[in-house]
Specification:
The protein is an alpha/beta fold. It has helices spanning 41-45, 85-88, 91-107, 121-129, 159-164, 172-185, 220-232, 244-253, 266-275, 284-291, 300-322, 346-353, 358-364, 367-373, and strands at 6-14, 23-31, 34-40, 55-58, 63-66, 68-73, 110-115, 137-140, 189-193, 195-196, 215-216, 236-241, 257-260, 278-280, 390-393, 407-412, 415-419. The chain has 2 domains: 6-66 and 381-419, Roll (Urease, subunit C, domain 1), CATH 2.30.40; 68-373, Metal-dependent hydrolases (TIM Barrel, Alpha-Beta Barrel), CATH 3.20.20.140. It is built from 14 helices and 17 strands. Strands 1, 2, 3, 4, 5, 15, 16 and 17 form an 8-stranded mixed β-sheet that branches. A 4-stranded parallel β-sheet has the order 9-12-13-14, sandwiched between helices. A 3-stranded parallel β-sheet has the order 6-7-8. A hairpin with an 8-residue loop joins strand 1 and strand 2. The radius of gyration is 21 Å and the shape is globular.
Amino acid sequence: MASEDRWLIHCGAVWDGADPEPVLEADILVEGERITGIYSRRALGELPGIAQGAKVIDLGDLSVIPGLIDAHLHLFGLDGSVAGAQMTWPLPYRALRAAADLSRLLDAGFTSVRCMGSPVGPSLARAVNEGIIEGPRIVAAGEYICQRGGTWDPIGYPQWWAESLGMFADGLDECRRRVRERVRSGSAFIKIGASSGRPFHDRVHPWADGPDESRPNYTVEEMRVMVDEAHRAGLKVAAHAIGDAAVRNAVLAGVDTIEHGHGASNETFELMADRGVVLVPTLSLPAMRARRGPAGGLPPEQAAVWQRHLDRQLDSVARARRCGVLIAAGTDFVGPPHTPFGENAVEFQLLVEAGMTAREALLAGTVTGARALGMESFVGTLQAGKLADLIAVRGRPWEDIAAVRDVRFVMKGGRIVCRRT
């Protein structure tokens, strides 16, 4: 719910995401849910009365940056270590578990997220918007759309149950129908599967055993029908796409964001840059599973698959940057045991590992993240008139990205939702 308070926030520095350099010894004026202005302390002192009546929040030497954005995660409300949970756990129970995950995300400084596929996502988004539960702003896809035998087809589960999920679309008419169903059910964007592994062969079916083994799924014509239908309804389209053919087909079809995207050629990345298609590489999920998974019981051969993907992703991020592609930060976190919510800021460190500067990584998780969510007009930067979604951290994250892991203060829409001494 919106705040009606008036706040004056003292801090050591503000990095607003719009200007290259931070404002040192800064004051932020917040009225209700929006930012009124950002001033150096000296400048504000020369404007008598402007902060009159405001309540003071003194953050000392902490640095303030825009609220973080995870442009790719899944609010499943599941525990991946429980076999069959996707099929047997009731959706109301999963929604309650996912609500607890939202609290962890907010405490970690994430004030906006994009839920890239979950049957409970749109309901969670509505509950947050109505102030029923506390959490980041959610842009939710609802259920996926994929071909039978494709990206998220739960191979090995009964056909009748897989059909009951309502995710399958084959042929132009069914593709159009599924998008219209998503619009009716409250989806805020459309998520389609443009690539997959081979059924019954790959250890990680949606990703395949490596980007070179990933096969394209939909035809350009099928994806174009979904894109046209979504855009006519005012919704963006995201495509899970790994491997050059799948990425290129999705870009030619007109999608707005490419998820994962590794294995694409420089020519395809140049096409993305020309068309303004955002890449969300999702380094965290393969990194967490490759580097931490074996200690948590992940079979070594599966960890090796994730390492193979991670190696190619790190290379793809570097090449995409050189080609001028905009990159947004997204984790692909799905919950325990290997990707527990609250540790999502690891994505920023991985982007730096891929060759980004700390400042570029911050832009990926604020400015470009807001663009991927379609929310750039009111979040992503700290500017007068925008929503007061901001966090404070120890250190200077535009110089040392690890500082984003130490969040001490979170404000969302002018309301204090987390403060640690």
